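## tool: complex_structure
## caller: assistant
## args:
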Amino acid sequence: MISLTYYLALAGIVFGIALFGVVLNRKNVIVLLMCVELMLLAVNINFVAFAQFLHIQAGEMFVFFILAVAAAESAIALAILVLFYRQKQSINVDDMSSLKG
Amino acid sequence: MKALPIPEIIAVIASLGLVVSSLMVTVMRNPVRSVLSLVLCFLFTTVLWLLLQAEFLSLVLIFVYIGAVMTLFMFVVMMLHVDRKMLTEKFVSYLPLGIVLLLVFVGIVGYALHGHHFPHVTRSLPHFPDHYNNTQVLGTHLYTQYVLPFEIASIILLVAILAAISLVFQGREPGTKAQRVKKQLQATKKNRLVIMDIKSEKP
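## result:
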């Protein structure tokens, strides 16, 4: 029987890989956003596992709302990214330094 | 002979696939491949959630995430012409820091999940009866106890739609053949219809 710990460890590993990706990908904001999505996915795995093992339905509701907010977030982030690309012709993180004093 | 533990085998395969494809998301140099491996991640997660008896959420993950959000990502990747040579430089210099962070994080998680820190691990997954309906249970909760957050989520989605459109939309360029409702409504018979006199002739 698969235990709760198994799912929690899996979610931890996926979150760690996403963190690794955020550190690694300094050239491409799209991959950065995808790593953030991966982090949200890891958190959602935690929520679903806890909800099912502890018999609390509220966890599944949280996953539902996280999905809604993540969809909104990625839509706005990609819109901002398209605007940035129109101005600078690149999606490099290092080019996003206009506010530097 | 003992029967094969099919759910456990499926879960192990799906979680291995999840870890491998999430690594592929981070390491792939081509953004299109990253998007496709993220889709693979979501598919494996769907399998895991189905094994956890969360059917509705796993289907929502396929419909909303793979169907909508990942398609959006794919559109943006296709829309922006990114120089691939520029993307590969400076890749290695962050690698040690990334690996250290990964190891530290996984170590913290492993320490936290260790036996006596974590009293709930002995619980087992409940076996729901055949007439149990995951969608119905979620819907009952959503429309009674969580009505207000549900409506707030819908407003957030509406705001996101408006924000995305108003950020990216630049107004119509002249010369494009878009529909212009105001002009259409102002048109009258006089400026569309011409009656010509044509002399009838014998063939």
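## assistant note: The CA atoms of residues 15 and 67 of chain A lie 16 Å apart. Chain A has one domain: 4-92. Handing back to user.
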